[in-house]
Design goal:
Rossmann fold; Helicase, Ruva Protein, domain 3; 5-stranded parallel sheet; 7 strands; 51% helix; globular; MURQ/GCKR; N-acetylmuramic acid 6-phosphate etherase; EC 4.2.1.126; Glucokinase_regulatory_CS; Etherase_MurQ
């Protein structure tokens, strides 16, 4: 038996759910819900640490760098999920935010035996992704001790990248790496060791905060509207036009004309309508303002 693993908070029985196997569906769900409420409270106390990581991500993005998540199992899947949602939501290049998982993309669906136990594999996958000193790497592991993740974090540091960790236990090997580590200690799971539950929820909340904050701070949100979304299907085309309408209060005819002239670029269409300019001038203004709609709407002489 692994005495270190047995001592982890995420591997302890939860006294509050010890009779959960004798309950009906609604009672089970009430207990799960009670435990889930604790996650947001824990995250509140971690906001300064999460903000520090977000600030470093913003710095990297502004310099053309990228964000990499590295995890195994549930943690790896959560990283891939967050990365995969950035292009349609914020119009980012797919390389800008990437998720690496022990065992490769096969592991998104199926377990890959032994992959998470190799620090060398983590390091080699990190190298194969082309991580450089301009990038940010975030290792994610509920236990804080997954060799694949620690190996990747170590190699990222050697390559000069900014490195952070996210785990759900205190005083783990991850916290002893010398890198800043966000310890979202949410307590024992409803079902012992099922870290896809509270631990996974905490990880997803943190990643949502990191990328959403970073995207806002590099100009991909105007007011609270996602103005850089990629309208790649009918639903998103409808959303894009609705965003233009909410931002400009223009008529349907004006919105359709601006949408066509801007070639579906929501930011461009908004600046066209609010500043009364054509697509070329709107794009020039956006370029001069580093993509911020507010900046593109000020006097052209100030750009």
């Amino acid at each position: 038996m692994d005495s270190i693993l047995d001592g982890l908070i995420t591997e302890q029985p939860n006294d509050k759910t010890s009779a959960i196997d004798q309950l009906g569906s609604a009672e089970i769900m009430a207990l799960i819900n009670d435990e889930d409420r604790l996650v947001a409270e824990v995250i509140t106390g971690l906001i300064p640490q999460i903000a520090a990581a977000a600030d470093r991500i913003v710095e990297s993005f502004r310099s053309g760098g990228r964000l990499f998540y590295v995890g195994a199992g549930t943690s790896g899947r959560i990283g891939i999920l967050d990365a995969s949602e950035c292009p349609p939501t914020y119009g980012t290049d797919p390389d800008m935010v990437q998720g690496l998982i022990a065992g490769g993309f096969q592991a998104v669906k199926d377990p890959v035996e032994g992959a998470e136990d190799s620090a060398e594999l983590g390091a080699s996958d990190l190298e194969a992704a082309g991580v450089t000193a301009g990038d940010v790497v975030i290792g994610i592991a509920a236990s804080g001790r997954t060799p694949y993740v620690l190996g990747a974090m170590k190699r990222a540091g050697e390559l000069g990248a900014a490195v952070f960790g996210i785990c759900n236990n205190p005083e783990t090997p991850m916290s002893q790496t010398g890198f800043p580590v966000i310890e979202a200690v949410v307590g024992p799971e409803v079902v012992m060791g099922s870290t896809r539950m509270k631990s996974g929820t905490a990880q997803k909340m943190i990643l949502n905060m990191l990328t959403t904050t970073a995207m806002i701070r590099i100009g991909k949100v105007y007011r609270n509207l996602m103005v850089d979304l990629n309208p790649s299907n009918k639903k998103l085309v409808h959303r894009a036009k609705r965003i233009i309408a909410l931002a400009t209060e223009a008529s349907d005819t004006e919105i359709e004309a601006a949408y066509r002239e801007s070639e579906g670029q929501v930011k461009t269409a908004i600046v066209m309508l609010l500043a009364g300019v054509g697509a070329a001038e709107a794009r020039r203004r956006l370029s001069a303002s580093r993509g911020f709609v507010h900046g593109a709407l000020i006097s052209p002489n100030a750009l």
